Each structure stands twice: as C-alpha cells, then as structure tokens.
Amino acid sequence: MLGLLAQTYTYTYTTTSTSSGLGAGFWIGYTIFILAMWLIGGFFLGKVFVKAGRPFWAGFVPFYNSWILFELGGKSGANIFWVLVPFVGSIIFLVQFIIAMLELGRRFGKSTLFSVFGLIIFSIVGFIILAFDQSKYSGDGTGTAAAPAAPAAPAVPPSDQSTPPTPPAAA
C-alpha cells in the first residue's frame, strides 16, 4: 500500500494555438467596419450641416458634431458634457438629446413622427432623408418643407408692340 502513495506520475502537455490569427482578423475587420460607419455617418451629418449653414467637415469631428446638433436643435452645445457624469448625467443627456432632435426636425419642417422615428430611433435613415430632401433649415423653428415645383408656364413669343395692327381691307 505504501508503494502506491509514493508513485510519481509524469504528464506531458502539447498545446497548439491558431486563435491569435483569428482574433487579429476579427479586430481588423471590426476596425474597418467602425471606420466605414464613421465616414458614412459623418458624410450625411456634413450634408445636413451645410443645409443649416454650418461647415461640412464638422460632421466628421467627434463631440463637435454633437455640439452642433444640439445647437441646431435649439439647445446649448455644452449638453454633451452631461455624458461625463455617471448615471444621472447620462439620463439628462438622453432627455436633452431627444428634445433637441424633436426641435431639429421641426426646424427642418418635419413632423414629430418623423423626428421620433427618423432622428431618434433610426437616426442614420433620418439624416439621409434630411441630407437629400428639399426641406430648408429655419433657425427660428419655422422650417419649410419645399413645396413641389409649379409647372412651368407655356412659352409665349413676345408680341411686337411697335407697329399697330392693320385693319382689314374693305371689299
């Protein structure tokens, strides 16, 4: 029995790993995806900013583009700093953001329904619509959606007013 307790065991371990290549591929793909989303979102925000009289490049600058969105929505741009306050600040930021997006939609002449679904819930779609539709930004909140173009008047040749008409000949 004593011989069993004194017995030693020899273990050998063999490890193979291919997960580092898989992880690197994931992070490279993820980085490319995030970069593409940043470029696409910045492009559409830039187009909206141009319609509101702001510079196009501002759509690509993080935090500054949020500052401008708040200002276009009639709120102070400093509301972005609420994000830095844990818990309560995030809630305040979210409420201020919703109010600013509702006002932004109104200033572009859009309905509240569009603002809720287009600018808050499905924001990328809403900003694409704002970037390319015919609506105009109005800083005072009376945004105007462009009316459909009136049909062009038919072209009438100008009449020559210099010579009086000749009366018909008597028979």
In short:
With 171 residues, this protein is mainly alpha-helical.
SS summary, helix count: 6
Radius of gyration: 33 Å
The computed structural class is mainly alpha
Q: What gap, in angstroms, lies between the N and C termini?
A: 152 Å
Beta-strand percentage? under 5%
Write the SSE topology.
Layout: H1 2-5, H2 19-51, H3 64-72, H4 88-107, H5 112-121, H6 123-132
Explain what this protein looks like in three dimensions:
The structure is a single chain. The protein is mainly alpha-helical and 171 residues long. The chain has 6 helices and no strands. Helices cover 50% and strands 0% of the residues. The longest helix has 33 residues, at 19-51. It starts with a helix and ends in a 39-residue tail after the last helix. The model has no long low-confidence stretch (mean pLDDT 83).
Write out key terms for the chains shown.
171 residues, elongated, single chain, 6 helices, mainly alpha
